[in-house]
């Protein structure tokens, strides 16, 4: 593999082209421009470098290797094979001959061409080294290496008394526009497609001056095709007439102020949820297929969303996100991906990694619940987690409340439906159904106290005292909750 191919492969690794289904975070943007990026890597990159060096080559250097071999063969035929030294150079006594002068001239041109090719090769090598410093096993982060051994790093420094620096200081953020996609779901054997046909959005750094909503398309809102319905939407600001209509739907008190500016402000009081109810009614009224009409009128009370938080504690953590994303895609479940370097936050706030991660996760869940009007956030804590938490509380010191371990719900938002189901029961369930799962290797890292409780303390108690200790803890906690 030459330096060009090595650099091309690095770019493909960075853009994750072997994972074409990635559709979140930066990969969503990259996949949107996938064809252009692939063309640049495979074709344009080499062409651009070649054209940059073309001005350094003239007509004399074209087919120089062929010319060199031809003059060598001509000298061998005319002056004999002994005219060359064992190293391939022309002997001194033949250098003043006409053929000898031609040979030396072509040889000089060949060396010049080779020097240009060598510099070109160095360019691809330098490009490889540069980009490899900003990427390592799935993470985009500058690496200011000045020593290969020991991974020593240096930061840009101009002699200031105090230098403030952070890992991605020389990276910058560009606000991109929204990417609207079709949303398809099935109701029994019927397919429903939501399609955004027109959108007025924020671009660049321009902040929206008015709130925007999803509303039915003015021209062709609903199209029926056999067992398929296409519902077309617009994403835009409301007109004054629409503000009045949806204001009534939202049961907002009408102060009958005809002032135009007041009407603009009233749009801020309208919620998308109230518009959705009106859209739902209009869709059901307009659908002609009675079977689909009845299915749409049926109440479906459970809608799932999945949130994945990438703590950026270990390398290749994005692969876990990819696994969850693929699973959600198969099940047509909306997927929210969030990534943040928890170690940096923990260091800044002087928290443990566990506490920092917990704080950021809960902050995210409350944000998503508020933004998308989610009624519950279901966490996957199980009986083993509950047992670990109780032992941790005892080790650190606790009262009666702490002995209850993890609450089954919190503030009517956080729920834990698996809290009294053991890890073994969950594993048996997924194995019987042939389901796949991913395990976090940091859960085996004995540097963390929780992992010591999980892998050392509890197994020791089960082996030497009571194998049903987790079930007994469950009974004890239920008694505490009843008596509380």
Structural description of this entry:
It is a single chain. This protein has 16 helices and 14 strands. Strands 5, 6, 7, 8 and 9 form a five-stranded mixed β-sheet that branches. It is 47% helix and 12% strand. The chain is extended. Helix 13 packs across helix 15. The chain has three domains: 136 residues, no CATH class; 115 residues, no CATH class; 178 residues, Rossmann fold (3-Layer(aba) Sandwich), CATH 3.40.50.620.
The number of helical elements comes to 16
CATH class of the largest domain: Alpha Beta
The succession of helices and strands, N to C, reads: HHHHHEEEEEEEEEHHHHEHEHHEHEEHHH
- Count of spatially separate domains: 3
The named CATH superfamily of the largest domain: HUPs
Approximate shape: extended
Strand content: 5-15%
**End-to-end gap:** 70 Å
Parts with pLDDT < 50 across at least 5 consecutive residues? 203-208, 252-264
Question: Largest beta sheet, briefly?
Answer: 5 strands, mixed
Under the CATH scheme, the architecture of the largest domain is 3-Layer(aba) Sandwich
Total strands: the figure is 14
What is the CATH fold-level name of the largest domain?
Rossmann fold
- Approximate helicity band: 40-55%
Please state the average pLDDT score.
77
What Rg do the Cα atoms give?
34 Å
The class by helix and strand makeup works out as alpha/beta
Write the SSE topology.
Layout: H1 3-14, H2 25-32, H3 34-54, H4 64-79, H5 98-132, E1 135-136, E2 139-140, E3 145-147, E4 152-153, E5 183-187, E6 190-199, E7 213-216, E8 222-225, E9 228-236, H6 240-249, H7 260-266, H8 272-286, H9 290-297, E10 306-310, H10 318-331, E11 335-339, H11 342-349, H12 353-371, E12 377-378, H13 383-396, E13 409-410, E14 414-415, H14 423-432, H15 449-464, H16 469-483
Helix pairs in contact: 1-3, 1-5, 4-5, 6-7, 11-12, 13-15, 13-16
